[in-house]
Design goal:
heterotrimer; A: alpha+beta; Nonspecific Lipid-transfer Protein, Chain A; five-stranded mixed sheet; globular; disordered C terminus; B: alpha/beta; TIM Barrel; eight-stranded parallel beta barrel; three-stranded antiparallel sheet
């Protein structure tokens, strides 16, 4: 089973394709470093993925100009930014606001709750999504922070700015 | 006043540490196989992970309860026995069991370890509970979520063991351990495989009008309007039509979660020894939020203060909550 | 190897709220015409229904026994309320006829006196069956969702302990029971105020998915399969694997003819193909399934060719 990224409802504005491609080029070197580092630090993550280490995930932060293609194969790890109109056919698609996805990555938000509230959308192979979620949930600490650390103070500043730029909805979090 | 324990879910070692840090008195968990009723992809513990987790929990004064609460099909009993042997070797504090053959094995092979009767055994009367107590030395029964508080109080008087009740989480509609709905549609059994609406058979489809339908093994379970809150694609929370209900209705139950936070004082007064939070399949975020909220509540009640329960609705299924049968038998 | 007794056909308890008249007529005909060896009586699903037909029980038992049938009284699957506890205790105290227990409360009350284990008791494996045999069980009806391989192992273990082994081979499968009455809920009522609306659906209330696919049947607190289990083609293997009793669940079809089809196949007096054709004629508009037996989704119908 595979799902096309074209299912996204975001309309393409004129010139958006070019912006998207440029953004992908800029962000790719960072992604490559990030994913190698995280894979080294969290080997047990792959065991929980089981057969879905070779599944192509499309992670689609709806307000960013690009989506992320993840294939969590420890032998040939892929995490790359892709323009939506050039995204590969994915086994599973996970779609939501960028900060929500970041919070899910770090278990600051509960994936089921985000799904119940319809803020998170999944398509394609549900088992793949559940495995990825459970694998990430077993990681202690913050993957986002860890990522930011790779780039030192500038990285932390970027993360802080991202969090300000894409705030959670005010009523989103029940626990102070 | 009794001092009820808070029994918390852990689907991964990280969730177990989170639960312990958030104030769990005990954490329940299972192995990565059919021996427990949350045999979900990517979830649960390897023996090595359980060893480290038991050590971590014990160092922080929390207990670890191992769920062996499914029913081995004939020919596969050894898997459950081996799981019990491993659990015993790793020093778990109790086994949660449902099957009589498994209970009998543990009672004979590991008599020093406590046996808790799983909700999957569906023991809902004093007589049924006493059967397990007298024959297998069961020390605690997890009551089905179908009893009112006065009924729990009456049961308490007639049984020789402790009572554990669910206080939050998935609201089981069917008598646990007697449900083959998932197997009917998917070929995977809740009782024998520990599976309920397996993700491998779930599919979500988004439609042009913004609605989303959930399917299990190709059967439409529900369809949610563009802004409508969603639920798990479980058969007992699905929308169906009947001859006189052509509009489609929740034939069994709406997507809704159990939340007994307001009934905690009554449950303590009825003699409940332990409060169980459902959700081994949920994230650390859920565990952290729910466990710490209930920790504060139980501590407040114990200290004679008014419990201030944080609003837990956001974490509930369909973002709706109920007190179910505990509040009134009209629920039935 | 011990000489195998002839395989017995049994008629399970009526799970629906049939009227007293309907039950009297049904059992009169069973007594006179149905080639079944054993008949289970009693209310298994809802304790509120029992008063409607309890008064007729002695006469029904007498009628069936006079016709040479063995009668067994089945206990409630769910025991929670005082009246349910009392009914279970009273039944367990009986010396005759035989009793079938469907809840651990019944096991508690029965002690070590002989009894049968019903399909709601979750006797899934040889260890549990051995435990139950040690407590006085003489017979076990296996859970309806067990696949063939497990049935074979369980049956062999039970036979070695001297127990009879029963498997449901016809009728809707019990998929779940609940404390809540879904018949009452469908009509905006509660269980305590149900007004016995379930009597309107003598073969269960059909549920369809919202895209109009038949899926389940509601019978009070019980949820059943939409399809009828039909293990007629599998009877040979069941018997070879050590199953001694084949259970037919009463549905709103000609159960005498259904029983005859199974009896004829067991006796080898008609061919399987012919019996299947007649069974389909008897149950027009009903889907048959055997997925559980073949370890697949229960609603599925696995063709003979695939099983060979």
């Amino acid at each position: 089973m595979s799902v096309s990224a074209g299912a996204s409802t975001l309309a393409q504005r004129p010139g958006q394709a070019a912006v998207s491609r440029l953004a992908c080029l800029l962000v790719q070197p960072l992604l490559s470093r990030v994913v190698r580092k995280i894979a080294r630090n969290h080997l047990s993550l792959f065991a929980r993925l089981g057969p879905h280490r070779s599944t192509d995930f499309l992670i689609d932060p709806v307000e960013l100009p690009f989506a992320l293609h993840l294939r969590p194969d420890p032998q040939a790890l892929v995490l790359r930014a892709v323009p939506r109109d050039a995204a590969p056919r994915a086994g599973a698609v996970i779609r939501g606001r960028f900060l929500l996805l970041l919070e899910l990555l770090d278990s600051e938000e509960d994936g089921d709750a985000a799904f119940f509230s319809r803020d998170l959308e999944v398509a394609g192979d549900t088992e793949a999504v559940v495995r990825l979620r459970n694998a990430l949930d077993d990681v202690d600490g913050s993957i986002a922070e860890e990522t930011a650390e790779i780039f030192g103070p500038p990285g932390r500043a970027i993360l802080a700015r991202l969090r300000r730029a894409y705030p959670s909805e005010p009523e989103g979090h029940p626990f102070p | 006043m009794s001092n009820p324990e808070l029994i918390c879910p852990a689907g991964t070692p990280a969730a177990l540490r989170t639960a312990v840090d958030a104030g769990a008195d005990a954490v329940y968990c299972g192995f990565q196989d059919a021996t427990n009723a949350r045999n979900f992809p990517g979830l649960n513990f390897t023996p090595d992970e359980l060893r480290e987790s038991v050590a971590h929990a014990h160092a922080k004064g929390a207990k670890v309860l191992l769920a062996l609460n499914t029913y081995p099909p004939a020919g596969k009993v050894d898997l459950w026995r081996q799981a019990a042997d491993i659990g015993a070797r790793l020093g778990v504090d109790a086994f949660i069991v449902a099957d009589m053959g498994v209970a009998d094995y543990i009672a004979r092979s590991h008599p020093g370890i406590r046996l808790h009767l799983s909700v999957q055994a569906a023991a809902s009367s004093p007589e049924a509970i006493r059967y397990y107590c007298e024959h297998f030395g069961v020390k605690r029964v997890v009551l089905p979520r179908i009893l009112t508080i006065p009924e729990i109080r009456e049961i308490r008087k007639e049984i020789p063991c402790e009572i554990e009740t669910f206080i939050f989480g998935n609201h089981g509609l069917m008598v646990e351990g007697r449900c083959s709905l998932t197997n009917y549609l998917t070929g995977q059994s809740t009782n024998m495989d520990g599976v309920c609406s397996p993700a491998s058979d779930v599919e979500y489809a988004r439609h042009g009008d913004g609605s989303m339908s959930s399917q299990l093994a190709g059967f439409t379970i529900d369809c949610f309007g563009p802004g409508e809150k969603a639920g798990y694609p479980t058969i007992c929370k699905g929308r169906y039509t009947a001859p006189h209900r052509s509009e489609g209705y929740y034939a069994f139950e709406e997507p809704v979660s159990l939340n007994l936070s307001r009934l905690l004082p009554d449950l303590i007064d009825a003699g409940v020894h332990a409060f169980k939070i459902e959700g081994r399949q949920r994230s650390k975020s859920y565990v952290r939020g729910v466990v710490s909220a209930f920790r504060r509540a139980v501590d407040d009640i114990r200290a004679g203060r008014q419990a201030n329960i944080a609003d837990l609705v956001a974490l509930t299924e369909g973002q709706k909550q109920t007190q179910g049968a505990f509040e009134t038998k009209k629920w039935r | 190897m011990a000489v195998r007794e002839m395989t017995k056909l049994t008629l399970g308890p009526i799970t629906y709220h049939w009227s007293a008249d309907a039950r009297r007529d049904f059992y009169a005909r069973v007594a006179d015409e149905a080639p079944v060896d054993e008949v289970y009586l009693g209310e298994v699903i809802c304790s509120k229904r029992a008063p409607f037909h309890e008064a007729d029980l002695p006469a029904t038992i007498e009628r069936l026994e006079r016709a040479g049938k063995t009668v067994i009284l089945s206990s409630l699957a769910e025991v929670m309320l005082k009246r349910e506890r009392k009914a279970t205790g009273d039944l367990s105290a009986m010396e005759s006829p035989e009793i079938e227990i469907n809840n651990a409360a019944g096991l508690f009350a029965r002690g070590r006196r002989p009894h049968r284990i019903g399909p709601f008791m979750n006797a899934y494996n040889e260890a549990t069956i051995a435990w139950m045999a040690g407590q006085g069980a003489t017979h076990v009806c296996l859970p309806g969702e067990m696949p063939a391989a497990a049935i074979a192992v369980a049956a062999q273990a039970a036979r070695e302990l001297g127990l009879g082994v029963e498997v449901q081979v016809f009728g809707r499968a019990s998929l779940a029971v609940s404390a809540r009455c879904y018949h009452a809920r469908a009509h905006g009522r509660t269980k305590d105020n149900c007004q016995f609306i379930c009597a309107d659906d003598p073969d269960g209330m059909p549920l369809r998915t919202t895209d109009d696919r038949p899926i389940l049947r509601v019978n009070g607190i019980q949820t059943q399969s939409e399809s009828y289990i039909d293990l007629l083609p599998e009877t040979g293997r069941l018997v070879a694997d050590g199953v001694t009793h084949l259970r037919l669940m009463p549905q709103s079809v000609d159960m005498v003819a259904v029983a005859s089809a199974f009896r004829n196949v067991l006796d080898g007096t008609i061919g399987l193909g012919e019996a299947e054709v007649s069974l389909r004629d008897l149950c027009r508009g009903v889907r048959f399934s055997n997925g559980f037996y073949h370890g697949q989704a229960g609603y599925r119908r696995i063709a003979m060719a695939e099983t060979a």
